[in-house]
């Protein structure tokens, strides 16, 4: 199966701009986007219907082998070609994020989901983490063990 937008020529900057315009068109405010290429991550944050949200985007590492060898794995690519392949993968990731955000906003706009449900895992909690960052590990442990988690509290502490 091919990956969505794997052959896109749309720049990362253009995708960021499109994400901002989409968010603003649907009524979001306080938009911000940034990236730390060395750390391999990017972030988009915004407030939508008074709900603060942040989504982290994992960026590929330039050192990944897939950028330095041909798809068959038999030939090494030069540094310039490897960098172009890495940029292509970054462009694809941003296009996927654009699609995801747009689809969630459209689902809310059409009454398929509430804003809270659409962006639940991205909601920024008072401690600065997102719902997913704060509660995700505990929920996964509960699923693995078959046991309901203790009451969830901020910071992972239990009563």
General description of the model:
It is a single chain. This protein is α+β, with helices and mostly antiparallel strands. The protein folds into 2 domains: 12-124, no CATH class; 126-159, no CATH class. It is 43% helix and 15% strand. The chain is built from 5 helices and 3 strands. It has a 3-stranded antiparallel beta sheet with strand order 1-2-3, with helices on one face. Helix 1 (12-25) packs parallel to helix 3 (79-109). The longest helix is centred in the middle third of the chain and has 31 residues, at 79-109.
Question: Helices and strands in order, then pairings?
Answer:
Blueprint: H1 12-25, E1 29-36, E2 41-48, E3 51-58, H2 65-68, H3 79-109, H4 115-118, H5 131-145
Antiparallel strand pairs: 1-2, 2-3
Helix pairs in contact: 1-3
Concise overview:
With 159 residues, the chain is α+β, with helices and mostly antiparallel strands. It is built from five helices and three strands.
| Tally of separate domains | 2
Biggest sheet details: 3 strands, antiparallel
Class per helix and strand makeup: alpha+beta
Strand order of the largest sheet: 1-2-3
Count up the helices.
5
Helix fraction bin: 40-55%
Name the assembly state.
single chain
Query: How many whole angstroms does the radius of gyration measure?
Result: 19 Å
Low-confidence stretches: none
Q: Give the SSE order as H and E letters.
A: HEEEHHHH
Compute the average pLDDT: 92
Strand content: 15-25%
- Would you report the number of β strands? 3
Global outline = globular
* Termini separation: 46 Å
């Amino acid at each position: 199966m091919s990956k969505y937008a794997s052959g896109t020529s749309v720049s990362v900057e253009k995708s960021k701009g499109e994400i901002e315009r989409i968010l603003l068109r649907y009524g979001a405010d306080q938009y911000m986007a940034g990236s730390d290429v060395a750390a391999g991550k990017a972030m988009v944050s915004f407030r939508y219907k008074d709900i603060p949200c942040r989504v982290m985007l994992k960026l590929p590492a330039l050192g990944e082998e897939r950028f330095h060898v041909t798809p068959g794995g038999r030939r090494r690519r030069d540094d310039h070609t490897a960098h172009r392949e890495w940029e292509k993968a970054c462009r694809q990731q941003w296009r996927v994020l654009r699609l995801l955000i747009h689809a969630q906003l459209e689902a809310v706009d059409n009454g398929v989901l509430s804003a809270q449900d659409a962006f639940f895992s991205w909601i920024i909690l008072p401690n600065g983490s997102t719902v997913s960052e704060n509660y995700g590990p505990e929920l996964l442990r509960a699923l693995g063990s078959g046991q309901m988690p203790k009451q969830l509290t901020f910071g992972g502490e239990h009563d």
